[in-house]
Every structure is written in C-alpha cells, then in structure tokens.
Design goal:
134 residues; alpha/beta; 4-stranded antiparallel beta sheet; rod-shaped
Length: 134
C-alpha cells in the first residue's frame, strides 16, 4: 500500500508496518506458547490410577512385617497382593479408581478386612490396620 500510493506519508506507512509486525509476532508467540503449555495441562488431568498405602501393626502398636495384604476391586473382582515391609508398611501402586476391599493375613494373627476403601485419581488412600493375635 505504501509503495503503490505515493501520497501516503512514509511515517504513516512505517507505523502501519511496525504495528503489523508486532501483532503478527505476538500471534506467533502465543501459538508457540500454547503448543508447550496445553499438552502439559491436558496430561495433568488424564490420570486414571491411585494408591493404597498403610501400616500393619499389632494391638500394642508394634509393626508386623511379612503380612499379606490382598486388595480387591469391588466392581471388577481384580485382585492385587502385596506384603508389608520390615517396618510394617505396604503400598499398592497403579490401582484403577474405584472402591476396594482390603484383607490382611499373617500367621499367628486373626484375618482382618476393611471394606469400602475408595481410591481416587492421583491420590494415596491411607489404610492402617491393627491385627489381633489368635
């Protein structure tokens, strides 16, 4: 426009060209930024698993290593078994969200079960258990 119409002053043409450059550069930068930010925001919301963790103790509060913890998803019947560590702790990772039952067994102790343990996305559901001797 500036080259084809000599009646328009050079200063005006330069201002228009500068404005167009700034606007176009801003649009390109906004687009490039969105390419990096939006996938991170989307992936942060796509978790589908959670965890159940806790400790197994006796009635006096002493830790119980080697206890068998069977975790069953109520809706599907899918089972996972983990064993408590030397410090009595256990952790079941990557559990599908839903409602679970937890059954703890150890020789010399009564079997203990906990119902309606809810696992939510990207959360650790804490379920500590105290076993009775017997």
């Amino acid at each position: 426009m500036c080259k084809t119409n000599p009646s328009i002053q050079n200063a005006f043409c330069e201002a228009v060209l500068r404005r167009n450059f700034v606007v176009n550069t801003g649009i390109v930068l906004l687009f490039l930024t969105s390419l990096f930010l939006f996938p991170a925001a989307i992936s942060a919301q796509t978790g589908t698993t959670g965890q159940i963790a806790g400790s197994v103790t006796d009635q006096s509060g002493g830790v119980i290593p080697g206890a068998s913890i069977t975790i069953t998803q109520v809706e599907t019947g899918a089972k996972r078994t983990v064993v408590s560590t030397d410090d009595g702790n256990y952790r079941a990772l990557n559990l599908a969200i839903g409602v679970y039952s937890v059954v703890i067994t150890k020789a010399g102790y009564k079997e203990t079960s906990v119902s309606n343990v809810v696992v939510n996305v990207d959360n650790i559901t804490r379920q500590d258990v105290s076993l009775q001797t017997g």
